[in-house]
Amino acid sequence: MAKKKSAIDFEQSLQTLEQLVESMEGGDLTLEKSLEAFEQGIKLTKECQQALREAEQKVEILLNQNGEEQLAPFAEEQPGDDAE
């Protein structure tokens, strides 16, 4: 199971991704450094997408609880594993 990212981790990953894009757009990186930045950017993008999917699932669960606002475990969570 992938490690869950907190909102702060998500924001940091997004900021790092933006910095990578700026560096690559600047054109001052060597080919090797550009490829490393691209690889890191792909990894960060996947992590951010996963965090967004998990958040979307939680919202969907809340909306489908007949108007009752209570959290329920979903695919990757185990019952009782709500310590954050």
Topology (elements, then pairings):
Blueprint lengths: L6 H20 L4 H33 L21
Kindly report how far apart the N and C termini lie.
Answer: 16 Å
Largest sheet, if any?
none
Mean pLDDT: 80
Q: What value does the Rg take, in angstroms?
A: 17 Å
What is the number of strand segments?
Answer: 0
Q: How much strand? A: under 5%
How many H/I helical runs? 2
Uncertain stretches of 5 or more adjacent residues:
none
The residue fraction in helices comes out at 55-70%
Order of helices and strands: HH
Which structural class do you get from the secondary structure elements? Answer: mainly alpha
Shape: elongated
Question: What does this entry look like structurally?
Answer:
There is one protein chain. The protein has 84 residues and is mainly alpha-helical. It is 63% helix and 0% strand. It has 2 helices and no strands. Helix 1 runs antiparallel to helix 2 (31-63). The chain is elongated. The protein starts with 6 loop residues before the first helix and ends in a 21-residue tail after the last helix. The model has no long low-confidence stretch (mean pLDDT 80).
Brief sketch in words of this structure:
With 84 residues, the chain is mainly α. It contains 2 helices and no strands.
Properties at a glance:
84 residues, mainly alpha, 2 helices, elongated
